[in-house]
Each structure stands twice: as structure tokens, then as C-alpha cells.
Description:
Blueprint: H1 25-47, H2 49-60, E1 64-72, E2 81-88, H3 94-105, E3 112-116, H4 122-134, E4 138-141, E5 143-144, E6 150-151, E7 154-156, H5 159-163, E8 170-171, E9 176-179, H6 191-208, H7 214-220, E10 226-227, H8 230-235, E11 241-242
Helix pairs in contact: 3-4
Amino acid sequence: MPIAPPPPKTPIAAPVEAPRFRPSIWSITLFVLLASGIGIRAYRDLSRPDAFDYWKDQYVSPSLTASLIAKVYLGSSDQGRRTLAVGGTIGPAAASLFRARLDEAGLAAGDLVLLASPGGDLSQAVIIGEIIRSRGLATAVGTADASGRVKPAYCASACVLAYAGGKPRFGVLGSALGVHRFTTTKPTSDPVADTQRIAGAVLGYMTKMGVSSSVVEAMSETREIRWLAPKDALAMNLVTDPLNKP
């Protein structure tokens, strides 16, 4: 029987290459312009001293610390309350850090913010005070040990404005509140007018928080820290609930 010849081979088509994307000179130019524009804006933002300070305080080395304490006791009869203990200098990004820590802690109205700070940024302290008031939190000056007992500390300068946001504001025996005249650190053409503007803003804030205008008078008297006697802080309504009456 004759052998049938093999079927003819079908030629294999060569693979078709996908068309390569070749960016035009215009698209490359547009990308470079956009990238350089964003880079220049970022550089300009961070090259400003205040912006760089904010960035550093926010992301690199926060000057304010905040930690949750499950129970803090303000007196022998106190049942204890959840507390956010805040310490350190009030930096240019302190309010953002404080709000974030407060959200993490989940404090409710009536809980406590325990302050111990030498002061710092005035505007950030005001924002912190507003946050404290909006959430119905109490304030006190001090630190807490491992058992939750409060030890005396001090709150000076801008810290006093953060403390003023509390309702109530507890007075811890041995703790101190220090005030002084606020001035701007930025160059200004009229330092006197700028100081008056700051004093007016502080007065408006303190009045809103229920503190007597006499505290602003005490501030305006000196550039150095004046430590308020417990009876003076009580008379100014800066302290509303002394734990041990002066």
C-alpha cells in the first residue's frame, strides 16, 4: 500500500509586537513642569520657619506628650476618672497631636485632662482649650503616679489658656499656675499695638471660658512668670474647684 505523504506544514506566523508607547516631547515637558511646580511649592512651604517647625513638631519630634491613665484620683473621696496626662512644651502642632490622642483615648464628658507644661505656642494652647471645652472635660494641674494619685506640678504661660478650657477646673494643692504678658516673637512694625491685640484676644478667650478679666491684668503686669497664689487663682475664677481650699 502506498504511504500517504504527510500533510503540508502550516507556516507559523511571527508574533506581533504590541505597539510601544512613545511619549511625546510635549507630555514629557508637561510632566516635568508639574513635578517641578509641586516640588517648588513644597520647598517654599517647608522653607518658611513656621512651616518647618510645624512639620518637625508634627512628624519628627513632637514637643507635647499625652498618655491615657485608666483611673486618676483627685482626692480621698474621688471615685477616679479616665485621664489624659499631657506634658511638655506646647509646640506649633500641639493641637493636632492633642486632638488625635484625645480621640484615641475616647474620653467622655466629665473625664480629666491633667496638665504639666511650661507653656509654648499661644494659638495652639487656645485651640487645645477650645477642644477641652467642646468635649466637656475637666482640667487639673499635676502628674499622676502608678497608683493614679495626683502629684503637684506647674502650668505656666500658654498652658494656663489650655487649662482654662476645663469645666470644672480643679485646683491641686501644691500645683502652681503661672502667668505673664504675651508678646509676639515675629518682627512687627508696631510692637505696642501687637501686644495690645494679643491681650485683647486673650481677654476675649478667658471671658468666654468664664475666667475673670483680672487674670489678664495680672498677665500684663510682668514679662516674667508670676505664680498665682491659690486664693488669687480662686478669686479670678481660674480655679473653680479647689481640692483643698486656700
